[in-house]
Design goal:
Keywords: Electron transport, FAD, Flavoprotein, Iron, Iron-sulfur, Membrane, Metal-binding, Mitochondrion, Mitochondrion inner membrane, Oxidoreductase, Transit peptide, Transport, Ubiquinone. This protein has 687 residues and is an alpha+beta fold. It is built from 20 helices and 27 strands. Strands 1, 4, 5, 11, 12, 13, 16, 22 and 23 form a nine-stranded mixed β-sheet that branches. The protein has a seven-stranded mixed β-sheet with strand order 9-8-18-19-20-17-21. A three-stranded antiparallel β-sheet has the order 6-10-7. It is globular, with a radius of gyration of 25 Å.
């Protein structure tokens, strides 16, 4: 299964892009390409290359020297390549047409889009399978973050079931699971107090770990690299390469680097690459931009429920040593959310006097005035100023912030998992076990706050397992290909057996048993009705019922007009000690996007007036409240400056922390989230 590519050396492209996206800092997970062999017959002929991608232990300066050397060598050997030809249309800006740009094409066996737990688990499993059977396979992981883990956000409490299967000796290999869970509690909050809630013993977190998922993901990347997986941070999957009949996938195109806001090439312009793959696995996380395109174009959600989401808003604090209880896990329900808003909070004591805390709000809430960020931040009578949180945080320091959308739809919202040439894994498909937080929720907890924790715990092990299942079926399919298989002309590789493998797995069993819990909250009694049913289903019926509840609509359809029995919520100003303004918190994410690039939060110019009119008149500017990074503002404007109804929409895309909430919740469904230049976005490390 040796892979080949043509046009220009991949080394040159990697070197240029690394130099472009690395910025002032460099990634510990960056891979240094070392040319094993370079040969060519002519500049225009297809050329076979063999590369070795190994993790380097040298300093950045040595790495950059090697990259520069590789780029120089490539330029000498391929001085008449298509890269030179690309300069022709670029010189004439008026005539520049991005669709005519010739791109580097690289052939691989498996291309995995997304370097999170699911994608890396799939990559590791594939390489282990290949080594066990003495076969050669090329696996590439594309990651839009500046480094592996930079876009990973989680609570997190992790169950090690999938990790035990994937890497049985993870303890000996130094996996960053250092703080075992030591205690569990569940409380119902009132504005000024709380009371304990029952905690079934079968929901115990015994054996689980309080971790930083960002750190664990970086460690998984190290294991993958050692097995020979090629990982490219800063390479975002921007477009899908479809088969000629449009019914399958044959790879992806990475994003272009060096375009200005008007899509004109700047001096450092570098076209995105084409990765042609026998199998493409999408592991982008919840509401991934390419996953969304695949699902819609290939109608993978036919006869399935719509996906529903929550928004998790998180902080990490360093607290006083005398207040720290390593391994303590606490969840709450009730206040500050009302009875019609599904959600809950968590508080996890990590290692090194750190705590993880936050709130998850179901995005099917009806009240357009709710702001998940301010539910966490606002002073006086909001979450962090509640005695349970305020007493613990007093004298501490907030050291990290982040937010991310998460899947809540469950089993009935999982789309078809495979298609000709690829599959969906992890949260791209939606394997989150919302109510089962491995001991992190009780009767009610499965109801509201359940998924707050679930996002941060039970989602990881199911995502990893899905990647492993897809990898197993992918390897079987690749092994069955004839030696003369020609990817450019042959039929797409079929991994439809992945569907059956999932149905036979413990992941499907878990999700089927709890399938009715989240949708049970769609009832006239709101959260209380959901709590009562969830207690009956989970503790007595054990999920073994002949009926299945359904999600009636998408989250944006649940939003009601502001004029319908709603009034603006008075969120007091933050005090700067326990609670903070939104821009201060965004600064704690490390978010950065290159200046003068195309806005990745796309709203057609022709739709601006209708967007502003509808969102102001009906929903009083909902996007300005639901976004946890102050990306959207509806500002007063006059005359030509106004888009409509005396307002102008300003999109501060440089603030975007890639949570995807805007494209999920906006009632007009006219915001398209596209990938920005590779390496843009947050730089999470403790989350």
């Amino acid at each position: 299964m040796l892979s080949r590519f043509s046009t220009v050396p991949l080394t040159s492209t990697i070197a240029k892009r690394t130099a472009t996206v690395a910025g002032p800092t460099t990634t510990t997970a960056r891979l240094t390409p070392a040319i094993a062999s370079l040969s060519s017959t002519s500049a225009s002929a297809s050329t076979s290359r063999s590369f070795s991608f190994q993790r380097t232990a040298q300093h950045d300066s040595l790495r950059n020297t090697k990259l520069a050397s590789a780029m120089t060598s490539s330029a000498r050997l391929f001085s008449t390549s298509a890269r030179t030809a690309q300069a022709t249309p670029i010189e004439d800006e008026e005539a520049f047409d991005l669709s005519t740009v010739e791109r580097v094409a690289d052939e691989v066996d498996v291309c995995i889009v997304g370097g999170g737990p699911a994608g890396l688990s799939a990559a590791i499993r594939l390489m282990k399978k290949a080594q066990e059977e003495g076969k050669e396979i090329r696996v590439v992981v594309l990651e839009k973050g500046a480094e592996i883990g930079a876009h990973i956000l989680s609570g997190a409490v992790i169950e090690t079931r999938a990790l035990d299967e994937l890497i049985p000796d993870w303890k000996e290999l130094g996996a960053p699971l250092n703080q075992e869970a030591t205690s569990d509690s569940m409380r119902w909050l009132t504005p000024t107090g709380s009371f304990p809630m029952p905690h079934p013993p079968q929901m115990s977190n015994k054996g689980n770990y309080v971790i930083s998922l960002s750190k664990l993901t970086r460690w998984l990347a190290e294991q993958a690299e050692e097995l020979g997986v090629e990982i490219y941070p800063g390479f975002a999957g921007a477009e899908i390469l479809w088969t000629e009949d449009g019914k399958g996938v044959k790879g992806v195109v990475t994003n272009d680097i060096g375009l200005d806001k008007n899509f004109r090439p700047k001096d450092a312009f570098e076209p995105g690459m084409e990765f042609h793959a026998k199998v493409t696995l999408f592991a982008e996380g919840a509401h991934g931009s390419l996953s969304k395109k695949v699902i819609n174009k290939l109608n993978l959600r036919e006869d399935k429920d719509p996906q529903t989401y929550g928004l998790g808003v998180k902080e990490v604090w360093k607290i006083k040593k005398e207040k720290h209880e390593p391994g303590r896990i606490q969840h709450t329900l009730g206040w500050p959310l009302d009875n019609s808003t599904y959600g809950g909070t968590w508080l996890y004591h990590m290692e090194d006097e750190m705590v993880s805390l936050g709130i998850v709000v179901g995005l099917d809430y009806p009240n357009p005035y709710i702001s998940p960020f301010r539910e966490l931040q606002a002073s006086l009578h909001r979450l962090k100023h509640h005695p349970i949180f305020a007493d613990l945080l007093e004298g501490g320091e907030c050291i990290a912030y982040g937010a991310r959308a998460l899947n809540e739809g469950g089993y009935q919202s999982i789309p078809k998992l495979s298609f000709p040439g690829g599959g969906l894994i992890g949260c791209s498909a939606g394997f989150l076990n919302v109510p089962k937080i491995k001991g992190q929720f009780c009767v009610c907890r499965r109801a509201i706050g359940v998924r707050a924790d679930i996002f941060w715990s039970s989602g990881t092990h199911t995502a990893m397992k899905s990647g492993m299942l897809a990898a197993d079926e992918t390897f079987k399919a690749l092994s069955a290909l004839p030696e003369d298989y020609d990817q450019s002309s042959a039929e797409s590789v079929d991994i439809s057996s992945y569907e059956a493998a999932f149905e036979d797995s413990w992941v499907a069993k878990e999700l089927k048993e709890i399938r009715n819990l989240r949708p049970s909250f769609h009832n006239p009694l709101g959260n209380w009705g959901g709590i009562m049913y969830s207690g009956l289903d989970s503790l007595i019926l054990k999920g073994r019922v002949p009926w299945t509840f359904h999600h009636p609509q998408e989250d944006f359809e649940s939003t009601k007009p502001a004029s319908r029995d709603f009034t603006p919520i008075d969120y007091p100003a933050p005090d700067g000690v326990l609670s903070f303004d939104i821009l201060t918190q965004v600064s704690r994410t490390g978010t950065n996007h290159a200046e003068n690039q195309p806005v990745h939060l796309h709203l057609k110019d022709s739709a601006r007036a209708s967007h502003v009119r509808d969102n102001i008149e009906q929903f009083d500017g909902l996007l300005g409240r639901v976004c946890p990074a102050a990306v959207y503002e509806y500002l007063d404007a006059d005359g030509k400056d106004a888009d409509a109804v005396g307002k102008k929409l300003v999109i501060n895309s440089q603030n975007c922390i890639h949570c995807k909430t805007c494209s999920i919740k906006v009632p007009t469904q006219d915001i398209e989230w596209r990938v920005p230049e590779g390496s843009g976005g947050p730089k999470y490390s403790l989350t």
